Amino acid sequence: MMNHYIDHTLLKADATHSQIENLCKEAKLYNFTSVCIHPHYVQTASQLLSDCPVKVCTVVGFPLGSNTTKTKVFETQNALKNGADEIDMVINVSWLKDKAYDQIQNEITSLKSTVGKRVLKVIVEISLLTKEELAKISQIVSKSGADFIKTSTGFSAHGATLEAVKMMKENISENVQIKASGGIRDYKTAKAYIDLGVARLGTSSGVEIVEGRISNKTY
């Protein structure tokens, strides 16, 4: 079922409390896997979804990934305390450009240790990476213990591409799944990613996708 692939997302800077309430209502109605929201709405979403299986996902180091590791660990701890089930963290892209591979892996491992049995997804921001860098970060994520590698924040030059997902798939280990996000606004596009083996879709157009409509949302 398409709905089970969807992380129903609202990460716009001006997202209001009433919009988060509506997001949660839609997630319950369509039985999406999760809602993906900013950290300060985690407690609200956790309460609104307490009577259903929809998970609460939030972001860490978002959207640039430039926070220190200690800050990301604190963000994660706080989010879990407030009721988050899943964490989508952003890597420090500067470290990848500087080939500081051990630092990246240690940071991801630290966050995975913090979340424990909960789900950790690692956002690598494909629009900023060369093919070689995407291959390398896919390998690093595989060694780190993370559960998912995720294409994009949705706030950079572009979101997911089929080409990037194919490259990720070629370089990740069997224990890592792929989340495609950014620019997925219709059923045909969503299915193309699923057919490639993507396990999750991050999208603000979940309702339109499952209803077979084309979304006019820009995010």
From TrEMBL:
CDD domains associated with the record: DeoC
Keywords carried by this UniProt record: Cytoplasm, Lyase, Schiff base
Signal sequence interval, chain numbering: none
Active-site residues, as the UniProt record annotates them: D88 (proton donor/acceptor), K150 (schiff-base intermediate with acetaldehyde), K179 (proton donor/acceptor)
A Pfam entry, by short name: DeoC
UniProt-listed Enzyme Commission number(s): 4.1.2.4
Subcellular location(s) of the protein: Cytoplasm
Pathway info: Carbohydrate degradation; 2-deoxy-D-ribose 1-phosphate degradation; D-glyceraldehyde 3-phosphate and acetaldehyde from 2-deoxy-alpha-D-ribose 1-phosphate: step 2/2
The keyword Lyase is assigned to this record: yes
GO biological process: 2-deoxyribose 1-phosphate catabolic process; carbohydrate catabolic process; deoxyribonucleotide catabolic process
GO terms for MF: deoxyribose-phosphate aldolase activity
Enzyme category, top tier: lyase
Entry's Gene Ontology cellular component terms: cytoplasm
Reaction catalyzed: 2-deoxy-D-ribose 5-phosphate = D-glyceraldehyde 3-phosphate + acetaldehyde
Family: Belongs to the DeoC/FbaB aldolase family. DeoC type 1 subfamily.
HAMAP family per record: DeoC_type1 (MF_00114)
PANTHER family in the cross-refs: DEOXYRIBOSE-PHOSPHATE ALDOLASE (PTHR10889)
General function of this protein: Catalyzes a reversible aldol reaction between acetaldehyde and D-glyceraldehyde 3-phosphate to generate 2-deoxy-D-ribose 5-phosphate.
UniProt protein name: Deoxyribose-phosphate aldolase
Organism (species): Mesohalobacter halotolerans
